[in-house]
Amino acid sequence: xxxxxxxxxxxxxxxxxxxxxxxxxxxxxxxxxxxxxxxxxxxxxxxxxxxxxxxxxxxxxxxxxxxxxxxxxxxxxxxxxxxxxxxxxxxxxxxxxxxxxxxxxxxxxxxxxxxxxxxxxxxxxxxxxxxxxxxxxxxxxxxxxxxxxxxxxxxxxxxxxxxxxxxxxxxxxxxxxxxxxxxxxxxxxxxxxxxxxxxxxxxxxxxxxxxxxxxxxxxxxxxxxxxxxxxxxxxxxxxxxxxxxxxxxxxxxxxxxxxxxxxx
Amino acid sequence: xxxxxxxxxxxxxxxxxxxxxxxxxxxxxxxxxxxxxxxxxxxxxxxxxxxxxxxxxxxxxxxxxxxxxxxxxxxxxxxxxxxxxxxxxxxxxxxxxxxxxxxxxxxxxxxxxxxxxxxxxxxxxxxxxxxxxxxxxxxxxxxxxxxxxxxxxxxxxxxxxxxxxxxxxxxxxxxxxxxxxxxxxxxxxxxxxxxxxxxx
Lengths: 264, 200
Prior knowledge:
- The complex is a heterodimer of chains A (264) and B (200).
- Chain A has 264 residues and is mainly alpha-helical.
- Chain A has helices at 8-27, 33-59, 63-83, 92-118, 126-157, 159-167, 172-197, 205-212, 217-249.
- In chain A, helix 5 (126-157) packs across helix 7.
């Protein structure tokens, strides 16, 4: 099987559909046509841009370039985790906690996958490393953001219960234990659900893409399984680390609940 | 015999620095208008809020022992009790039978679901919960505000009995002047000018 290359005309036909939708939106006064067009333009520009960056990286295989792009991706993901919080941690913590957790989990898991499982030469071959890291970061980011959101929301809502335990001489770990468990679970639910539904309800995007690009279905499936496992591990470990760090930060050295460390 | 000494305690919500001393076996009552910081003072003494100044129990300063140990020795009973578990015994594994009886409970109360407790029952159980730690100092934030007269008598008898027998120091916040006169060894008034002893 060979990949059918898309021409500019092919993409224009698809773009025409979006334009028709925008016109319909105008007629129906949905108020989204402008956003729709801007989003479509952004997709085109952003993806083309990343296409050129990937092309450059593929042509110039170098560990330094790979490290640089990985760190940029990590920092964007860290910012996104903070942006998704209703009450993020104040100061550098807000950004740092998600970023450190993602670094520890996704980078370790991706490194393991690249060096031991895929084991290409060199191990940082961009064709494998970048999509893998991208998928890991994207999913781990969601898990960590959900876990931290749950943690901070619950700590605010259950402040009285937490402090009631502190007053009785319970440690901070005991006092936040239930909330901590819930938050960790919460962050892991999406990946567990998508593993459970994979193939039955949805065909995962990566696998679909590979099949469209001409890969034999069973090869695509094997890669998808690998990715699912890696994402589950990365998200799980990342969420656990983030929630542990986050819950510690909610208490000070005298084990006082410090909700003032969250933004209003 | 461990007395509690509060020296120049204040924080951003407690602009006046507070000085206070309560001996083991002594009950002092603090009264005063709402919003001046009575509850915040108790929280600072229990080391639940950041504060300046020093608090010591006997020879030991608050910062010298782990916070968990401090809060077991200096027990705070807040005005509203909070419950995190399903059943009463999730909150206090051990409680003395005679203390249960003193507040009118049978032992099966330990198996009761927290959901079905009335406000008054919660308040009385919260008192037993803090007593289970056998604290040297009890910080009581309006412990009888939600109770019927009969329960008020029982609670006063139990807490004063604990105070004299252990002996433990009591700092009791109350808006009820008659109660203050009834139970206090010394009385204090807390308003925007700070804390002052009532001598009359």
